[in-house]
Design a protein that fits this description.
- The complex is a heterodimer of chains A (about 425) and B (about 270).
- Chain A is of the alpha/beta class and about 425 residues long.
- Chain A has two domains: about 160 residues, P-loop containing nucleotide triphosphate hydrolases (Rossmann fold), CATH 3.40.50.300; about 140 residues, Coagulation Factor XIII, Chain A, domain 1 (Distorted Sandwich).
- In chain A, about 30% of the residues lie in helices and about 30% in strands.
- In chain A, strand 9 and strand 10 form a beta hairpin.
- The termini of chain A are far apart.
- Chain B has about 270 residues and is mainly alpha-helical.
- Chain B has one domain.
- The radius of gyration of chain B is 19 Å and the shape is globular.
- The chains are: A alpha/beta (about 425), B mainly alpha (about 270).
- Chains A and B meet through helix 1 and helix 3 of A and helix 2, helix 5, helix 7 and helix 11 of B.
Amino acid sequence: MNAKHVELPDDLVLRVRNLGKEYKLYPSPRARFKALLTGNATHRSHWALRDVSFELRRGQCIGVIGDNGAGKSSLLKLLAGTLQPSCGQIERVGRVTAILELGAGFHPDFSGRDNLYFGGSLIGISHERMRELEPGIAAFAELGEALERPVKTYSSGMSVRLAFALVTAVQPDVLIIDEALAVGDQHFQKKCIERIMAFRSSGCTILFCSHSPYHIRHLCDTALWLRGGQVAQFGATEPVLAAYDLYTRERQEREQQPLAIAGSCAVGTESGKKEHKANAADALHSPVSAMDGSSARILSVEVQDLAEPVDDQPGLLQSRNLVVTITARGRGAERPNIGFMIEQSQGVGITSLGTHEEGALPRQVAAGVWQSVLTFPELPLHSGDYVISAYLFDETGLVVYDEWLHCLHLRFVAPKLMPGLVQLPHHWD
Amino acid sequence: MYSLLGECRALWQARSLLWVMTRREVAARHAGTAAGVLWPYLQPLLTVAAYYLVFDVVFSMRLGDSAPTHAVGAFLVVGALPWMAFCDATARGMNSLVEAGGILQKNPLPPVLFPMRAVLASSVIFGPLLLLVALAYLPQHGLNWSLLALVPLLLGQLLLCALLAYALAILTAALRDVGQLVTFFLSVGIYLSPILFPLALFPERWRWVLWANPMTALVLGYQNVLLQGLWPQTAIWVALGVWLLVLAVLLNGLVRRSRDQLVDWL
C-alpha cells in the first residue's frame, strides 16, 4: 500500500507527494480480462489526478473545489485509502475517517446494534472499545428501541443517522467529508455540523469537498482548487475562491457566446422566468414541508412598489428605494438568519448579505415566524434587469435551511442614464 | 511471489478483523431463521445422510471388486462431502469481491479479506462435518497412522480453495462471465472426479481428464485414508502440490496486474 502511516515533521498530519491516479479504460470487460491474463496493455489511460502535492497541518480546514470530473472524488478516495494511487505517495498520521457515502455496508437482516459492532470493526474499533462508545452512539443517532430491530426496518434517515454516529464516534486526526452533509432532516443536519465543528475546534484536520462556495467560505481556512486533475491553486480560501469564481464565469461566458450570437436574449429571460416559477413552486411544495410541518422554510419574499410583470418582462420598480421583506418560519424557538442576494439577470452577482454577518437579528412577527426588512435607500444601481434570491440559515449561519434561488425578477430604471452597473460611493476633488 | 507475500502480510495484520468477518459471514448465512446456526451444518449433513440411507440401507447397492469399498453409500459420502465443501468455498469466494464492492469502495480494507472470509466461513462449517464423517468411518480400520494424513489433506483443501477462490474472484471482477462459466464447471465437475465412480471404472485413456479437476487428488486421498486405512499414495501428494503451485503462480500474477485498479472494477 502506498498510503503509509509514518512520522511526519512538526504538526503535519498529511503529506501528499506527486500523487497520481490513472484509470485504465478498456474498450470492453473482455479486453480487461485479456489484459489481466496476458499482461498486454490495450487500455486508454485517463489520469483523474496527476502530480498533486500538498501538506496539511493539524487543525487546518481545507475546502476542495473544482468542476465535475476535476478529480475531487478520486482525491478524497485516495486520501481515505479506498482507492490505490497509481503513483506518488500519501503519508499520514493517526486516524483518518471518511464520510463518503453513509449507510452502505449495513446488513439488513441484523439489528442496528449488531451492525454497529461489525461496522466498528471495519473501521478499526474493537469490540471492547465499542462497548464503551455504544451509549454515546445510540444517543446521538436517536434510535432508541429501534437499535434492537433489524436494519431493514429502518427508514433511510435512521440508517444514515446510525452510520454518521458510528463513523464520528471516535475523534479522527483527519476527517474527510464528501458533500454528504445534506442528509437527514434539518435537526440532524444541524447536529452533524455541530459535531464536525467540535472536532475542528479540538484540533482535527478537516478536508471538505463541496460545490457550495458558501460553506467553504464559512468552514475552511484553506482551499484547494483542482482543475483537470491538477492543483490549480492552493492557499487561503478567499483568493482561491475568487480565482475559481472568475474561471467559472469566464467558462460560462465562453459557453454562452454562441447562444448570444444566435440572438437568444429573449429565450434567456424566458428560461429565467420559468426557472423562477419552478423554484417558487418547488419551495411551496417542497417535500420537507410536506413531511414535517415544523421545518424551517422561507414563507415569502416581497418587494415594495413593484409593478406586476407584463408578459415576459419583469416588473418595474416604481420607487427609488429597494425595500425587500423576507418572511420565514424558523425551527422551533431558534432565531434563524436570513440571507439576500441580488444579481444582474444575466448572472453577475452584485451584493450578498446575511443577517448573521451583520448582527441584524430577524424580528419575530408571530410564534416561530421571523421577518427581516432590507432597505437599500436610493438604490445605487444603474438601469437594468435584476434578480433576487433569498436564503434561510440556522442560528450559526452554517446550515442552509431553505433557499429561493432567483425567486423575484425586477426592472429598475435609474434617474441618471450613465453606463455601468453600480454607482460606487465616491467624491470629486 | 512478492505480490502474494504482500497479500499474506495484509491478511496477518488484519487477522482479528478477518475472524470477526468470518463469524459474521457464518451468522449471515442463517440470519432470520429459527434454527439459526444449525442450518448451515444441517444441509450438507442431511444430504450425506440421504446418500447413506438410499444407497446402503434401502437399496444395499454394491460396487465391483476394483473399488476401494463395496458399499455405494459409504463410497459416495467420502467423496461428496469434500466436494460440497470445495464447491461452497469456491463459489462463495468467487462472488465475494463483487458482492463486497459497496464496502470496499467506502472502507480502506485489503480486498483479499473478502474471498478469505468466504473460504474460512465455509471451512468453519464443513471442517467439523468432515471430521465427523472421519469419526463415523473409524470403526472400519480402527485407529492407525494413516488418519494423520487427514491433517495435511484438509489443510491442502483449505489452501487450494483459498488460492482458487481469490484468483476466480479477481477474474470475476474483471469479467462477470467468469462466474457463470465456473458455476457450470462446478456442477459438472463431480462427473470428472472419482466421487461417483471409482477411478478404476473410468476408461484408461480418459483417466488423465480427471487430474484436470483439482479435487481428484484430494478425493483419492480421503478414500485411501477413510475407506482403506492406507496412507495416501505419492501421486496424490504430487498432484496436490502441482495444483497449489500452479494456482499460487497464477494468483501472484493476477494480484500484481490488478492491484491498483481492482476496487474500480467492482
